[in-house]
Specification:
The complex is a heterodimer of chains A (113) and B (112). Chain A is mainly β and 113 residues long. In chain A, 0% of the residues lie in helices and 51% in strands. Chain A is built from no helices and 11 strands. In chain A, the strands form 2 sheets. In chain A, strands 2, 4, 5, 6, 9, 10 and 11 form a 7-stranded mixed sheet that branches. In chain A, strand 4 (31-38) and strand 5 form a beta hairpin. Chain A starts with a strand and ends with a strand. Chain B has 112 residues and is mostly beta strands. Helices cover 0% and strands 52% of the residues of chain B. Chain B has strands spanning 5-7, 10-14, 19-24, 31-37, 44-49, 55-58, 61-65, 71-76, 85-92, 101-102, 106-111. In chain B, strands 2, 4, 5, 9, 10 and 11 form a 6-stranded mixed sheet that branches. The chains are: A mainly beta (113), B mainly beta (112).
Chain lengths: 113, 112
């Protein structure tokens, strides 16, 4: 079955360490997205990529980095510069840049201690 | 960044009751969507609206794209326990190709 896989489901890191969250899709979608979810805050856009080797900053990109070397993969690195990294991270994809029927992964809960 | 105003923030209802929630924006949106999120999972698309005035149903769910293009509502009729979750509105405000903007969500609790 096609879908988006985020791994791991739960991740614990020490403060000051960089950590990379995985997002892989086999839907043949061109566009991919990273959102951050905090309680009562909804989903806030971190980065998005509309095509391989290209990506744009979202509303809260500071302290995060991404790469899009393959169509299927859009990993997110949470760097030590991110002041409050503990959150639920959601990856999504859509057929192309003009399609808004996003398919979401099941998320990664990152806890920094 | 731009945000959508979604209300109410939370609702506590009895099984069988109807539910209504809405989203407003200060600017015009070209697309409105409604998603539902179960605990610990990613959101799932419920209804997509692409034209001002459009009224669309999906089973017990009905959503409308406001005439002014600045608002949308979602109704759930005859609620059941599995309706529990967080409902998000989302929209596309700018030129085509920009990512969706999400509301802060409405948390629905249903008691049987």
């Amino acid at each position: 079955d096609g879908g988006i896989t985020q791994s791991p489901k739960y991740l614990f890191r020490k403060e000051g360490q960089n950590v990379t969250l995985s997002c892989e899709q086999n839907l043949n979608h061109d566009a991919m997205y990273w959102y951050r979810q905090d309680p009562g805050q909804g989903l806030r856009l971190i980065y998005y990529s509309q095509i391989v080797n290209d990506f744009q900053k979202g509303d809260i990109a500071e302290g995060y980095s991404v790469s899009r070397e393959k169509k299927e993969s859009f990993p997110l690195t949470v760097t030590s510069a991110q002041k409050n990294p503990t959150a639920f991270y959601l990856c999504a994809s859509s057929i192309d840049r003009e399609s808004y029927g996003y398919t979401f992964g099941s998320g990664t809960r990152l806890t920094v201690v | 960044g731009q945000q959508l105003n979604q209300s109410p923030q939370s609702m506590f209802i009895q099984e069988g009751e109807d539910v209504s929630m809405n989203c407003t924006s200060s600017s015009i949106f070209n697309t409105w969507l409604w998603y539902k999120q179960d605990p610990g999972e990613g959101p799932v698309l419920l209804i997509a609206l692409y034209k001002a005035g459009e009224l669309t149903s999906n089973g017990r769910l009905t959503a409308q794209f406001g005439i002014t293009r600045k608002d949308s509502f979602l109704n759930i009729s005859a609620s059941i326990p599995s309706d529990v979750g967080i409902y998000f509105c989302a929209g596309q405000a700018h030129q085509a190709g920009t990512a969706l903007i999400f509301g802060k969500g409405t948390t629905l609790s249903v008691s049987s």
